[in-house]
Specification:
Layout lengths: L24 H33 L7 E5 L5 E5 L6 E2 L6 E7 L5 E8 L2 E8 L8 E5 L5 E6 L5 E8 L2 E8 L7 E5 L3 E5 L4 E6 L7 E6 L5 E3 L11 E2 L5 E7 L5 E7 L5 E6 L3 E5 L5 E6 L13 E7 L5 E14 L5 E6 L3 H4 L7 H6 L16 E9 L5 E9 L1 H7 L3 H7 L9 E7 L5 E7 L6 E5 L2 E4 L2
């Protein structure tokens, strides 16, 4: 605190040849009293301003807030200390995989209850209010939801007879719930011009790669033979697209192309690739390695690379078997989940590649093959610019995260935020020795984790 004791050292006075009038003592006292009153008034005004600002802050959601699904399927909003919980009211329903609207004012979640499965939208400012039913059809339940960038619509997947449908519905519950495209499996990313860049069918005869309108009628095929990749990617400013193609000789290429396709860069990939653009730039992180691929397991993991679409440089960021990764919102850090080495696993550990191989991802809506007791992995935070490791720790992620999120992390990274908005922490559902799951906030700087309580999944408000 600064020293506010008045100085006793006299200020030098300007030389004057005229006599100065001497103020009577009574007048000096009045002046001092007046100054004191003025000071009190100023301080009081400042106090009113501070109080008013505090009043405005009270009742606002915390800067780092999460939507959390508890162990019974209830939906809540909590701060990053697990406090100030607000319960979303929906009697008779259980929920999964909450997704925040782009402006952070609403949460959409897949719910199951009277009338079957549906997509429901909650207003975070009035959590006790009945949610909006954006979609609900008992015969065609949804299992994944993804907001459009303008927050007006929800795109989601539903189970159909023998296939999967990509649908769109208004977030306010108005209008039709139309089918945009059908195919299995189905992946897509929103573009900046209110269209969807869709990849469906893997590399089968029915495979499709191209842009589709929300009406489902306007579709533009790329004319390319899609490779066995999953979710396509679009850079933050919309300038670049990324996807994988298979050439006639069977070789694969990861393509990074400009929007109008007048410039294209290719990275040879031996088999399936998984990738995503930085949220703030033109860098593409990707994993592609066939060493662990066979007919019984399509779960790729390998070294993590970062490719700069502007400079064309390709850097190895983490030389390990990376099973999933997530960009921080500011693009400075990547949180990677890597497979433990044989030495790290030991002979008795129930984790690593063997567990993930047993947890063969099955495209929804087929039930996944669950692991038991979670998968032990290493969570590595890598500084993208320097390549340095910020921190690393062992984690045991839950069965749900292992089987539902990690195999399709490139799609979930588009719709569900596992990083806090300040890019300081990631949230994961971890499993303890009793096979009980808890929502855990893990700081990137290596400081202590915080358990928020029992739960199946949580996502951060943007």
């Amino acid at each position: 605190m600064a020293d506010i004791t008045p100085s006793t050292t006299a200020e030098p006075q300007p030389i004057s040849f005229e006599p100065r009038p001497v103020e009577p003592p009574a007048r000096s006292r009045r002046t001092r009293v007046g100054l004191t009153v003025a000071l009190v008034i100023v301080l009081a005004a400042i106090g009113v301003m501070v109080a008013a600002r505090a009043a405005n802050v009270i009742g606002r959601p915390p800067a780092n807030e999460l939507a959390l699904i508890d162990s019974r399927g209830g939906l809540h909003a909590v701060d990053d200390l697990g406090q100030n919980s607000r319960d979303f009211s929906a009697e008779g329903f259980t929920f999964q995989f909450p997704a925040w609207s782009p402006d952070g004012s609403r949460v959409a979640a897949i719910g199951t209850g009277p009338g079957g499965g549906g997509v429901f939208v909650f207003d975070t400012r009035t959590p006790a209010t009945k949610p909006i039913t954006a979609y609900q059809l008992e015969d065609h339940p949804p299992f994944y939801v993804y907001w459009t960038p303008d927050g007006r619509r929800l795109t989601f997947l539903t189970s159909e007879r023998g296939t999967i449908a990509l649908r769109v519905a208004a977030a306010d519950g108005s209008g039709d719930r139309s089918i945009v495209k059908e195919g299995q499996p189905m992946y897509w990313v929103n573009t900046q011009d209110s269209r969807l860049l869709v990849h469906s069918g893997y590399d089968t005869e029915e495979a499709f790669l191209g842009e589709v309108g929300f009406d489902g009628l306007t579709a533009t095929s790329s004319g390319l033979d899609p490779g066995p990749f999953r979710a396509p990617a679009v850079s933050a400013n919309g300038s670049y697209r990324a996807y994988e193609v298979t050439y006639i000789d069977g070789s694969g290429r990861l393509i990074i192309a400009t929007r109008d396709d007048d410039a294209r860069q290719e990275i040879p990939v031996p088999s399936i690739a998984m990738f995503s653009f930085s949220p703030v730039g033109s860098q593409l992180a990707y994993v592609a390695d066939p060493a662990r691929l066979d007919a019984a397991n399509v779960y790729p993991f390998g070294p993590l690379h970062v490719f700069d679409a502007v400079t064309g440089t390709d850097r190895l960021l983490l030389d390990a078997d990376v099973a999933a990764f997530f960009w921080s919102p500011d693009g400075s850090t990547i949180a990677a989940l890597r497979i433990l080495t044989d030495e790290e696993r030991g002979t008795t550990a129930r984790a690593g590649a063997a567990v993930l191989a047993a947890a063969r991802p099955v495209p929804p809506p087929a039930p996944p093959r669950l692991t038991v007791g979670g998968a032990s992995l290493s969570l590595v935070f890598k500084d993208v610019a320097s390549g340095e490791t910020r921190s690393e720790r062992a984690v045991r992620v839950s069965d749900l995260f292992t089987n539902q999120v990690m195999p399709f992390f490139d799609q979930y990274a588009l719709s569900h935020r596992f990083w806090s908005r300040d890019s300081r922490s990631i949230v994961l559902p971890l499993t303890d020795a009793r096979a009980e799951d808890s929502i855990t906030v893990i700081p990137a700087d290596g400081s202590a984790s915080r358990e928020l309580g029992p739960g199946s999944i949580a996502t951060w408000r943007p």
